[in-house]
Structure formats: C-alpha cells, structure tokens
Amino acid sequence: MKDAWIPYATRAVPRYTSYPTAADFTPETGVAAAMAWSAATRADEAISAYLHIPFCDKLCWYCGCATSVPNGYRRVAEYVGLLLKEVSLRGRAMGPHGGIGHLHFGGGSPNILNPNDFLELMDALQRHFGLRTGAEIAVELDPRTMKPGQVPTFARAGVNRVSLGVQTLAEDVQHAINRIQPRDMVVALIEDLRGAGIDAVNMDLMYGLPYQTTQHVVEAARFAAEMGAARVSVFGYAHVPWFAKHQRAIDENALAGLHERFTQARVAAMTLEGAGYVAIGLDHYARADDTLAIAAREGRLHRNFQGYTDDPCETLIGMGATAISQFREGFSQNLKDRKAWGEAVTAGHLPAERGIALTPDDRLRARALETLMCRLEVDAAEICAEMDVPDDRLDGALDAARELERVGLCHVSGTVVTVPEEARIMLRTVAQCFDARSPAAAPQRHAKAV
Ligand code: SF4
Questions:
Q1: Where S-adenosyl-L-methionine 1 is bound, by residue (predicted)?
Q2: pLDDT in tens, 369-388
Q3: How close is the Cα of 302 to the center of ligand 1, in Å?
C-alpha cells in the first residue's frame, strides 16, 4: 500500500450496498411509505425477497451481523411464527407483481431452522408471493451447525445456491475468533450438498482476523478454488467493538496492521485470480462460468444489500427484524427491536420503523455509485445523460475524484473516473466522491476503508 493512501485507508466509509445508506434512514419514512410503495409494484415485474433469521447456535467474536444465541429452540420457533405472519402481511400489501425471482435466507444462520420450519416458510412464500420458475433460492449456511436431514430438505425446497461461512482454515485463528470449523467438516458438507444436487456453493473468506497471516489467507483462497466454489467473497474484518460488543473478546494486539491487511487482501485476489476466478467489484470473485461473472462481462452487474448480484429487480421485500426493503421510491427498514417487530406483526401492521424516500439527486448519485462499485469506472456525463439532468450535475464529484487522483487512487479523464486494479480495495473511498449525504463520514458510523 502506498504511504499516501494511509490517511484514506483509515477513514470510515460506507459499504455502499445502497445509496442513501441505512445511516441516512429516518423515522419520518415509516409504515405509510412502506404500504404505499408495496402497492405500487408492476404486474409483470419479478421481485426479490430476503428473510432475516437473527439466530446462531454460537457467536463468532468477529461478527458484525444482527444476530444472537437463543436460549433453546422455543425462541426460534416463536420467531418463525411471527415471520410467517409478516410473510402474509407483506404478501397482502403488495400490488400485482410477477412473483419472486430471487429469494435469499440470511442472518444469523438460517440453518438454525428445523427442516419443518424452513419448509413452512417456503410454503408461505409460495402462497403469498409465488415463486417464479427457475427462481434463485439461496441460503447462508454455518457448516458447524447443520442438522441431520437439512441438506435433503433444502434440495427438496428448491434451494439452488448456498453460501458457506468459512472465513479461515487456520486453527489458531479459529480459536481466536471462537469459530472452530475443521476443513474436513466443510469438505463433507460440500460433498453432501453436491450429492443432493445443490452445485452452486459460495464461500465467504476473511482477512485481517486476529493472528491471521498472509499464508493463512492464501491457504483459504486455494481451498475455495480447489473446492470449486462458484463465488468467493473476501471481507476484511471490521473491528468496531463500540458497535458489536462481543468483538471486545478479540485481542486488538493480535490484529494485523494496515499494510498487512492490504497485503492479505491482495494475496487473496492474486490466488483466486490465478486459479481462474474473475474479480467482481470490491471484494467478490466468481468462477468464469458463474452467473455473476457472466453478468459482469455483459455489464449487468448490480449491488444490493446482499452485495454483488446479477439480480436486476427494483423491488426487494425484506422480512424479519431489522430487514431492509428496497422499492423504486425508496428504502424501508423493519423494526430492529425483535419484541417491537413481533408486536407490530401480531397487531397486523407492516413492521417498518424507518427509511428514506429517494430524491432525484439520490437516484442520480445511486446510479453513479453503483456503476463505479460494479465496474471500477463511471462516466459522470453518461450517467447525467441517462438520468436526463444537466451534464454538470456531478462536477463536484469529479473535483473530489481529482483530489484522489493526486495520490493515485483513481484516474480522471474528462468525465470518466477509473479506479486502477491496485486500488480496488480502496474502491469505496473513490465512490464516496459521489456521496452527497456522507461526503466525510462520521468516524464511528462505518468501518474503515481497509
Ligand atoms: S455464524 Fe455468522 S452470523 Fe452467526 S455469529 Fe458467526 S459470523 Fe455471525
């Protein structure tokens, strides 16, 4: 990493899985907006759905997700009962639409659900929304806590993509993050999944974990390639103990410094690309025959709350506590407090708590940001033309990008901003030039750039 990048690398920047980001949501945009926007879908449009399962059998100390360890399955079962109510409420609130084209179960660990509960949720989604033929049905899995009979249940329910949390194979690192997961356990699960016909297996890896070395990162990336992972995401550990209290269990002295983190991210990229993977945006890698790599080649890549996707949908219905929905008109987030969320759905109300209605300026910047985050390049004038606004509307962003050009984080040629390969990891910093709401993010609202 160039020394001139250090001040930027230590700056807090959003992940830009949406624009505006969740930090800009306000309570003024609540239930009424969620109702109106849900009803405004188009009869021929495919929609997407996300179900949040906020439970895990064990807590990993690096985790930044909205999850907790339940005291027995009774709490999970209660949550499923409430989630079924929300599926029904959301289904009834929708205008005409063409059914679910992409369905994602995330968390937490969705495999904490008993097979019958999972099937009941799938059945409710089919009844209240309808699943399109060939829909992508994806589930995040924790290999350590799979239950007997779960893989065949997923296959029977039509699950056709899974994401395995692998993170690292190094034992001492696994101990330091409270996630003991032998390599053989992951291999056996992948064999089971493939045996059941679920071939699209994604893997999540991490760098910057306590005691993690560059060699550990290379080993994990090689493993992902050897196992033929369809997609691999490589996230940097974000140490934000003021936000995620359990991260206090992580020894800060065992964390890699900035240069080492940068090197770890680079070796992961080099290992995966050396094995034939295509680099996608900030932190994803896809096998050349995977739909994500094909979408990238064809300029159809998108970015949403699940990261990079080939899903072009404009309506994503998030269900469960904290889940975020995306509409053409804006974003709407469910109540974060699980009790309040449950009370709302029991009372028959959409459990929306906060959100934001998009302004024309938000749409323009969102388009520019998504283009840059997906392609590492954006032509500001082209975006202005596409959105039918004067071509100087993003001049401020170009000025900000020229500042970053001085240290080599991007190139600006006319109205085109390009992020060079060596600065891919700093992509969010360049994207922030297009962000009018959080141009210099408050230090504790987001994680650092590297
Ligand atoms: S399994 Fe995933 S969601 Fe659960 S605590 Fe670990 S990292 Fe967080």
A1: 50, 107, 140, 324
A2: 999 999 999 999 999 999 99
A3: 25
